[in-house]
Write a structure and sequence with these properties.
By secondary structure, the protein is an all-alpha fold. 78% of the residues lie in helices and 0% in strands. The chain is built from six helices and no strands. Helix 1 packs antiparallel against helix 6 and helix 3 runs antiparallel to helix 4. The two termini are 26 Å apart. One of its GO terms (molecular function) is protein histidine kinase binding. It is found in: Cytoplasm, Cytosol; Nucleus. Functions as a two-component phosphorelay mediators between cytokinin sensor histidine kinases and response regulators (B-type ARRs). Plays an important role in propagating cytokinin signal transduction. Keywords: Cytokinin signaling pathway, Phosphoprotein, Two-component regulatory system.
């Protein structure tokens, strides 16, 4: 019992740190509120779909940035999809980088786009690692009502 309480506190602290460090926003809470006994892994399943979609988009953007001349319409479409996916799970830092990329794109700043895309990939990797630790810890702790609490 004490071990479970310790694990639940650890999960709550991990979750809070994701908000405190700016990795997640309120959209993540909205997803958590959709999770229930009938679908206890809903959030993790949605985030896993985000990983799959993001991997495809990152690959497509990488390829599009290598081609000359750049197809700005294609790049914009990919980035728009990436931003939408990021927004849908509350991936705040990734979404910010998507927005920055779009601003450089509109200004015709190719180097800014490439630099921002590298930063976006770094933020994505960090978020993915942090969420994997969070979900693994949450599975170990077991179901709890405090998981969907709003962060401080």
């Amino acid at each position: 019992m004490e071990r479970n309480n310790h694990l639940r506190r650890q999960v709550a602290n991990l979750r809070q740190s994701l908000f405190d460090q700016g990795y997640l926003d309120d959209q993540f809470i909205e997803l958590e509120e959709l999770q229930d006994d009938a679908n206890p892994n809903f959030v993790e399943e949605i985030v896993t779909l985000f990983y799959k979609d993001s991997a495809r988009l990152i690959h497509s953007i990488d390829q599009a940035l290598e081609k000359q001349p750049l197809d700005f319409t294609k790049l914009d479409n990919y980035m728009h999809q990436f931003k939408g996916s990021s927004s849908s799970i509350g991936a705040k830092k990734v979404k910010i980088e998507c927005t920055q990329f779009s601003e450089y794109w509109r200004a015709g700043n190719v180097e800014g786009c490439k630099r921002t895309f590298q930063q976006l990939k770094r933020e994505y990797v960090v978020l993915r690692k942090k969420l994997e630790v969070y979900f693994q810890s949450a599975r170990q702790a077991g179901p709890t009502e405090t998981m969907s609490c709003r962060p401080n």
